Records
---
Amino acid sequence: MAVAEGPLPHEQVDVVVVGGGINGTGVARDLALRGARVALFERNDLAFGASGNSSGMIHGGVRYLSTAPHVTEESCRDSGYIQRIAPHLLFRIPFLMPVRTGAMRRVYFELLDAYFRAYDDFQDLKHSEPHCRLDAADTLRLEPGLVGSIVGGITFDEWGVDGGRLCVLNAVDAVEHGARVFTHTAVESISRAPADAAAPRSYVVQARDRRTGAALRVRARTVVNATGAWGPVTAALGGLDGANVRVRPGKGIHVVLDRRITNYAILSEAIDGRQVFLCPWQNVTLVGTTDDDYYGDLDDVHATSEEVRYLVQGVARTLPGVRTARAIGTTAGVRPTLFAYGPNEDALSRDHRVVDHTADGAPAVYSMIGGKLASFRLFAQEAADRIASRDLGLQAPCSTHARPLPGGSAVPDAVALSRRHRITPVAARRLIYRHGSRALDLLERAAGRPRDLDVVCPCEPVLEAEVRNAVRREWACSVDDVARRTRLGLGACGGMRCAARCGQIVAEELARPPSWGRTTALAFLQHQARGRVVALGPDQARQEALVAAHVRSSLGSA
Amino acid sequence: MKPLVCVVGGGIAGAAAALAAAREDVRVTLVDAGTGASGLCTGAIDRASVPEPPGPIGPIEDGARAILDALGAYFVSSAGALFVSTGGVVRPAAGGDASLLDVARLPPGPVGVVACSRPGWDAAALAVAWGERYRVFDAAILRTADERAVPDADFAARHDDPERLAWLSERLREAVARQGQDWAALVLPPSLGATWPRAPELSRLAGLSCGEAIGLPGGPAGLRFEAARDQALSAAGVERLRARVMGIQRADGAWRVLAQGATEIDATAVVLATGGLVGGGVEYAPAEGMHATAVPYGSRPFLRLTLDAPAVLGVRGAPLESPSSLFGTTPEALAWPWTEDCPLERAGVVSTASGLFAAGDLVADAPRTWLAALEGGARAGRAAAQ
């Protein structure tokens, strides 16, 4: 399926979705599967904001068990559905929660055990193991790096997914069902179109390609604002009252360590009593997360060294080894939490809401506010149900819980694939992780061009064929975009070995001059260095200076 | 007994200081704990931090010229050199490692980019990136399957074998004959020797100019530097000691160098050529690295010399100050690309006591410049010997 290109002069679609995060791509896929004509506009890149920078945990919402057990049940059930439609994209995250000694801690331990017994009732829904209650010796046997006096520990089982990849797969599937996706295209205005006989009520959405400056115009029967933290900004473009779509933007960061330093995700308490964690994630480790009100530029969110120090201090209290681990970067995103004035950030509801703008004089315009990655599918279904029946008159029911995402129909065997195509088993395994059964098609297409099987990014690893695939079929148009789709350059070497080569390939695919390829590689390296330096430790400092020296001498510093 | 000059550091500045001092009437001992930044060099000899525009290079000090001759593996071109890099640029330099192909000095005609399946080497893409005169040149230069993946330095080491180099020249000759064109030169990936630049010999065998493109730091050019340095130092009669220097103290109007393993060297003069952060002479010591929860006791600059000596660190001539916060300086203030004048790249020794000399690219306030380090090293070595 080719990527849709070029302007759409006065083209008529059923739905315009604004926003290419998990909510936008999720609702676009849902509606496309029901037969609606969908156009999706994304200001930056798919998964640019919170979706691509989350920990990707599709957890069961154990926090909500005491206050809203139905939320836990919904979350667990939806997590089970995500596992069904994208089995290749999953990884297990077994949690270990050490319980420190102290006043009333034995009682607390009993209560915790009982709490997780209740949670066990839901674990089947998401194919997870029941919890385990461990004594102090067993807890330390599972993770000998723990310090401090503990009475015991609890294990529980959760699942993780690559949030960026999940967005891309939703978008790819939407396009394969007739949708069109425009990335790096900012919506400039949403206005009522003059009524005519064919379309008594419709909207004109004007957008601009931020790279070329080209203007686009689409007529749509309904508009969905799924722009997360940007939600109020988007609503203002449509002249809507911002009060109905207020969010409380909460910035969260993760520190990325260079490898899996534990087998278990470890929970710990930060200096202010908040829960923080360290979690093995794909082939790295994440330390997270913060939650702070954010009033800055949403297009340029980055972690600060203060946030990093807060997290590392919190985790080091339980697992001091984190101080000597090597940090290779940070991620930062802004959660679009439902607005409330008063509660502190952690106490805010993680619920979601579909706002109907009829009261603002804009019938058939909706905003999707709040939500979380773990229940994106359900949120998309709720929004799509309303739009399909009320505004589009489509009778087809939702099928996103049953139809696999692209590549999700089967998970091929990595060793067999590596033998057949003469790539390393590790490369095969990571390729299958990202592409599932479509790894086979990707390698078949590459068969005629042996260079395509060369490894571009040795850390991940990523093959040349996959970089080309990201540009041709997944809307990547910079090294940054390729990294979001393949994790190229996000490993231990920080892109030193692959960014320049990736820039060359992207430039070639997009028929741009080689100097443009260097510029996009340089932009990526600078972006990564900025994220990495806030987590700088004594051992990384030397590498950091070397990276700068290398970049300046071989790519130039412009 | 002749006076002794002790040089601390085995990079280009230290080697130049030792070689310059050895030309005078003194004994010289060079102490180092491994090659730092110079071992990671790309082979290009620069005079300015940002590569200068192509064109004539100003005069080089005589002392520095003599040391280049002693090293034997380098050339400096008064007209300026041009090198191609695997990053896809054609970049100017004052000179370089003799295995690099200087494309400024070629006869007219197309330059062949030798195609081979090596990481980061796409001949077609590089040919387009470098410009019009570059064409893909097909030749089978990999001998075994593992050569598709071995690191550049390992691949380069294979061409130290004369038989292998002859085999390579045969492959290139065959390919030239098959393609029947007049090639001005051939560019290969970083691969031509780990213990000595093999490009001149390969060019002789193949009958046309051959040379490398500049690769990533940590490639074969750094290994060739170490080999050329070792050869030159031993020819000059410089004594070597492999040890980490822990401190330098005053002793009876002279200096005492304390090295690991309880070794002490009493010297009339000392040259500090320990490099910056990349070289290993400077370390980054953030406050929170020390204790889990405690506020650090006292405060001190976030960068410090890795040895104890009467010298201070500074950036651009200004001494580094202690931070005014409990937990040290924020890293954002230190590093590229947050700040242009990045202390992680620029911190070096700024002031020294008499009889204690400092040399290096950072001392010259010209980071990453081989030539500045060489000239400064030669000057410091000569001064220390007098």
Note: The mean pLDDT of chain B is 90.
---
Amino acid sequence: MINYLWLVPALPLAGAAINAIFSRKMPRWLVSVLGVGSVGLSFLVALAEFFTVLGAGAQGVFNVSIYSWIPVGNFKIDVAFLLDPLSALMLLGVTGVGFLIHVYSTGYMAEDESYGRFFTYLNLFVFSMLILVLGSNYLLMYVGWALVGLCSYLLISFWFTRPAAAAAGKKAFITTRIGDFGFGLGVILIFVTFGSLNFADVFARAPQMFQLGAPIITTITLLLFAGAVGKSAQLPLYVWLPDAMEGPTPVSALIHAATMVTAGVYMVARSHVLFSLAPFSSEVVAVIGAVTALFAATIALTQMDLKRVLAYSTISQLGYMFLGVGVAAYGAGIFHLMTHAFFKALLFLAAGSVMHAMNGVIDMRQLGGLRSKMRWTYITFFAAALAISGFPLFSGFFSKDEILAQAFESGHIILWAIGLLTAGLTAFYIFRAFFLTFHTQARWTEDEGRKTESRHSPSSVVGHPSFHPHESPASMTVPLAILAVLAVVAGFVGMPSVMGPNFLEGFFAPVFGEAAAAIPAGTEWMLIGASVAVGLIGIGVAYWFYIASPEIPVNLAAQFKGIYTLLWNKYYVDEFYSAVFVEPGRRLAMFLWQVIDVQVIDGFANGLGRAMASFSGALRGWQTGYARAYALLMLVGTVIVIGWLMLR
Amino acid sequence: MLAYLSLLIVLPLLGALVLLFVPRQNNDAVRWIALATTLVELAISVALFLSFRSDSAAAQFVERVPWIPQLGISYYVGVDGLSLLMVLLTAFLMVIAIGGSWAGITERVKEYHIIFLILEAAVIGVFVALDLFLFYVFWEFTLIPMAFLIGIWGHGRRVYAAVKFILFTMFGSLLMLVSILALVFAHRDATGVLTFALPEILKTPVPLGLQGLLFAAFALAFAIKVPMFPFHTWLPDAHVEAPTAGSVILAGVLLKMGTYGFIRFNMPLFPEAARSFAPLLIVLAIIGIIYGAIVSAVQRDVKSLVAFSSVSHLGFVMLGLFAFNAQGMSGGILQMVNHGLSTGALFLLVGMLYERRHTRLIADFGGIAKVMPIFAAFFLLVMFSSVGLPGLNGFVGEFLILVGAFQANPWYAAFAATGVVLSAIYLLWMYQRVMTGEVTKPENAALKDLSAREIALLVALVVFIIWIGVYPRTFLDPIQASVTNLLNVVR
């Protein structure tokens, strides 16, 4: 099967290329068949590759070279793929979730005038993400890394006539590019240090060449992590992700929840050999992860835009993953990446289903009471909410617990406590959103006569809108149902040792090595108990605040007005960046142009020109036009030259 | 063997000669003849490229005929890996330039095309000349047609721009003429042979005392042409006022004469001086990268934005060349081609917009992607090529340059890499203001999308933008032997 590995990225690329050129002339059904079909086939091939790896056991690591890309001197880079348990699992996630979201999009985007362009971008994204995951060297990974950024830009600003969408796309690209600046330098430093960018070479040489804590490895890993901070929206570069919600909701689900934003986690896990050699860098990863998790969760507490709540939630959950890989629990980080892909994609798609029903309204102040109108959306959102809250035996319970347990066991008690607190906040904000959307009084009026148009770009309706909400078509609810099943059961592949076998740990052994010693059963049960308790408290408080006594949150907001305003305004970080970087940057640019270029340099050149003009003006006096005057001058000149030559 | 190179120089002149006899009012005949000439020229240079032997660093397709034997001047031409890509790029962009002038040039069509063909011959001559005097003649010969193009077919302040262009470059080339003479006489003093032939002069090392001075004089001439900071201020004016095709050729080909001069003359002739001057040139290059990018961001005119971005991109080229290692040098040479394609395409796109709206001010646009979706798609692709997005041409060159710069000094790469962030800022911001949003100006509401001719031109450019990004070996392999050879001399 390994000979067909290239098909996995090639199929979506072909879909993108054909739709890019011909979709304007093709019927919609053909665009859908190409767009969805290419990713579906890609998923089937990926599935076969996954079982190839699974069947090979400890030998499940394959290198496939496609062609020699850039050979210059000793810098030899191939387009080559690496298939091992880590990339095989990622392939399944990208193509599998990608396929479901493509199917969902055929319903969600059905009325959009740029249907073909949407599927072109979406297929291109899947291709790029697969290159990122499959690349067997850092440069190819960087190629995928940058291309997913391009697709993110294109899809966030998909509805480009809306200025907010165009601005958000640009912001996302530039902010992540700042991180890529570090990532690129890190890749170069790897080449200069190891003479190769191939994962196999680098990871084989690193432990031989360097001691634990070697400064150069620390530098490399910190530079690489800078890229992850941008791409995976961590502090301080997370600001682009909430704005990215301007894109169509399937995009938020696929790119800004399930796949692209997790690239940083994948990269750190892939580079685990380097990060293991750099304890300081790993500490930085863990701390930034934990702090981001808490920081973003606090913002999510007060937001009223359902998609923004989910966006801050994604930032927060990514923080968990970095906490995991930062404390060397690489398998746990990837495990949470996987379960999060299921339940967060589901949350977004369910939110999209709500927008579909409510004519683009996503402000929870205008939602409420939707549970009877949209059963499937309601039930699946509920399943995902339980999963992210860490409700026992739901997928998020297992993966989050493993990260927290490993943080605790590795001695990071403070980080564990932050993670635990965040878990409580997570349960609270997600159920707050759940109750405000599906329970509580409807804050809109039923309007039978009005057929709801399918408008999905976020719209804000002033006051008390009236709609005729309805459940979404099967193309949207079936993917919801499949993801809901996964969000519920996916956790059983990685059970804690006190509860059963951990399949995932064994599967990852060829990549991350044998698992560390099991955590003592008593500690394990204590940690599980603590996680479950805070999750249940969070859910309970949300119920108390928004169902039982809805006046409480209003009173609290009034009582702690300062904190509430700070959280509502997201700590004013965007305003801070604008004042400190954007505005001074613009002024510097104007200064360089108007003063240095126009006045100093051109002023100097023009001054030189004027001096020349007056000098030649003086010379002009000699040009009398009289032959005898010229003859005299020539004579004088000749005498001077000859005289000088003789006297020399 | 076929006299490929003479053919390449003579053919455009023949085309120009034929045009002289075409009746003035028959504009279409003029255009077709010019296009046919450049297409045949392109076909010949492709044949040249295909029959070029990649494993040799020596000049190939050499022709030598005595010209002024008393002074050791000969008609002496040849190509090696350093010049091969430049010849190909010139022939390619000339086709684009002629095709891009089809609708935009309606005044003095005949003279315009004659001048363009003369320019092509001169530029090819610059890239293949192996005799210093011949090189100088061709070099000067590029100046006059370009100045005419700006001064006659340009916009608004075209005369000011043409004069500024002439003065800046004349200043440089006069300096170069003096240094060529000094070099030739120094060589005669050392060997007793009076010759302008570069390969012969290279056989005898230039005395160390003279190297610094001559290097500086040559470097100044070429630095103005590149242009390097702080000699760049002629460029935005020239670009803004030049007609579209003039900008394509100016950015795509003429600036490369400067960077080419550095690798053809400065480095092999004065290797010791090159080494000691390298840090200065690299610092200027890096200042150019950052300065050009920052100033570019606040331009109000799209063309001057692209012009300042050229200052930034050519800073990358210079950085790569003077890193003095295989990656930097190869990346620098490849980036000369990349810049020609990407910036050439950008100027072409801006020109297409100008032909429809007769303005280039960013503030006059907005929402163009809505009315011209095909144009927008090409604009996006070309923009990301210029940003250096992996998978497209700019990335390969830029990354090789950064790898090379890092090996010379990590700080070079660290500072230069900020240009990668800045290029995203100025281009994406411009795209946002020109292309996205609702159409607010009524003049923009009914703009026609691209014609078949315009699409054909852009497709031709985009094919190479993707080709070099995905499979750069086609263009990297032929230059390796010459790069290695040059590095052996310089290091």
Note: The CA atoms of residues 415 and 635 of chain A lie 94 Å apart.
